[in-house]
Each structure stands twice: as structure tokens, then as C-alpha cells.
Amino acid sequence: MRYTIKTNCCVLLFIALSGLAANAQQRLKPKNGLLKTVKKSLEESAVQYHFLMKKLPADRFPVTYYSKENKMISSGSEPWVGGFYPGGLLYLYESTKDTLLYNEAIRKLKSLEKEQYNKTTHDLGFMMYCSFGNARRLMPKKEYDQIIINSAKSLSSRYNDKVGAIRSWDSDAARFMVIIDNMVNLELLFAATRLTGDSSYYHIAVKHANTTMKHHYRPDYCSHHLVIYSPQTGTVSKKQTVQGAADTSAWSRGQAWGLYGYTVMYRETRDKKYLDMANHIAQFILKHPNLPKDKIPYWDFNAPGIPNASRDASAGAVICSALLELAGYAAPKMSKAYFSAAETMLSALSSPAYRAIKGENGGFILKHGVGNYPRNADIDVPLIYADYYYIEALLRYQKL
Q1: Which of 9, 23, 68, 316 is 20–30 Å from 323 (CA)?
Q2: Catalytic entry in 98, 161, 170, 181
Q3: Residue 276 annotated to the active site
């Protein structure tokens, strides 16, 4: 099947980065003081990444940093976090025109390129679109087009039509596991449809989003982390929140992934049910009684020990960036609320409470991220994906 593109590709790319529909630009006006903070934060983030570049081995990708041991944790190109470092570098290059950052990003893209054929992971959107998608936007090349298309083919190979979703984890072939994170990988599929005209990628993304909407979400519009299906029948066998406080809790980064994913779904399809879904998720987050005043969430909205529980700057950064885009689509009253909340979050993340001083934090930008609390993994540390979505939010605000 073929899909006719009705929206100009350049317009889609602008909307994706700025987070604003045209009719929202006049009513959402940034604050001059915060714009100055954003400009300074982008400049200082670029300086910080120069420090990170010097500490990072040439063939490795940064993951986190343990300050007590003064130890950087890095990986090869295959884990899900590989695309965030080159993607963040490209965002910073876009803002500062610092060619050293651009050259470092291109070097890392060369190491990441082989993952376009990786069919063992559902995270190819994170890996290949946050990286090569940004590279293509800034410096269009046919080779980037083909890498995005090949990556989408690899991701599509994990789709099961009986389930109506893309498999996330491969640890048990008899159980078809789907996590909420996968919503953010769908953007890669829409890009492949735009590049090829082939609607199969588009339809896989839509089916996955619809299945997730049906089975991941509770009546109050918070999400489970994991839903397990039968690969033969598509029936649900179990729902869990693996990285949250309990199966019944609202893991903060999971809520962030859902908000971001359904905002993208509305951008790409203009189907109102996705806008409604994004609005419901945003309302759950922003009206939750356990959301702190600065709106940077605890690692789980139901975490034990609140208000002394760990915050998660990574969830905050994802939510902030998503709200800036959603504000461009929502009705005026909701739009204003989302924009105001995003400003509060951006101010908090840009303050000394969350943003590291130059030369500290191992070269990472944000402090106080939480990777996997139940496994006691990466608690109160910098996280490369927190940096990526923070830089994206800064740019979205600046582009207003």
C-alpha cells in the first residue's frame, strides 16, 4: 500500500522541533527572562559536552556517571541509549554552530550506523531517529534517508498483527511483551512512510498506538509499564509496572513516554483521539497530588517515602518537551496550562538544583536522574537521555 503525504515534510519537521502549531504561536509567548536563561543554558551545555567529549573513549557512548567513584559508564552502539549523545550534540550544534560538536556527532553516527539492521531491539526509534533523524534535518543526505528506512524495516520486523503491536522484550518467546516506552519509537515509522510513500510503516505505528491505548492505560489515564500478550491470540495475560514502585503504581518516566508518544501520534496523523489521549495523560500528571511544586516528578507518583523519595529529572525533561509540543495543539485554556507548566519545569531543570556546574557531573548536563529504582540501578545520577530531552525542550522554547 502507498500513502499520500498531505502535509509538507518541512512543516512537519518544524512542528516537531518547535512544538507549535501555527495557530498557537500568537497565544504562547515566552518570557524574556526565561529566554535568557535558556540561551545561557544552551551555551553552557555546549561547554559541558566539550568536557564530556574529552572523557569519553572514541568508540563508546556515554550512559551515566558515578560521582563517588569518579567513574563514567559508557556502552557500545547496541543499547537503547546510543542515539541520545549524537542527537544531543546535533541539537547543541544547531543552537551554537559549534563545529566541534557537529564533528563529534558525525563520528558517533559512523559507529551507530550498523544498528540500522538490528532486529533484536524495539528501541530503534530512540537509537536511530534521535540521531540520524536530527542529522537529516540539519544536513539532508540520501544516505541518512536510507538508514532511517532500513531502521524502520528492522523495527517493523518485530510487529505481530495478532497482537497489533511491536514486541519490546525478547526474554521469553512464549510471551509477547510490550512496554510503554515503545510509543516513542513510532516516530521512526512515520518518517519512513514520508520518505518512501509506503503506508505499511504508518499503519503499524497506528495499530501499535491503538493497542497500547486499549490495554496499557487505567481508567484514570495512568499507564502500566508492561503488558504481556499471547503471540498466538493477542489476548492479555498480565500487566506489570516493572520499573515502578508496584504493579498498581504510576512510574513517572512511563507516564512521560506515553505523553510524548501520543503527542507525536496526533502530530503525525491529526486523529483527534490521540490529542484527547495526550490531554488525558497530561491532566493525570499535572493534577496529581504528589507532583512537586517545581513539577519535576518523583521517580514514581506513588513512590514510598514521598516527599523524601528520589526525583527523576529524566521524566521531567521528557514531560517538559512533550508539553511544549502539546501546548501547540490543545484548546486555548489547556494550552496555556501546559505551557505554564513547561516553563516551570524548564526553569527548575535550568537551576543549580538540577543542572550541573561546568566541569562537574562527569560532563553530563542534568543531575538527579533515576534509571531503574527497583533494581537499585542508576539512582540519583545523570542520564544521557535526560540530557537529550532537556536540550530538546530548551530548543523548543527558544524557537518560539
Answers
A1: 9
A2: 181
A3: no
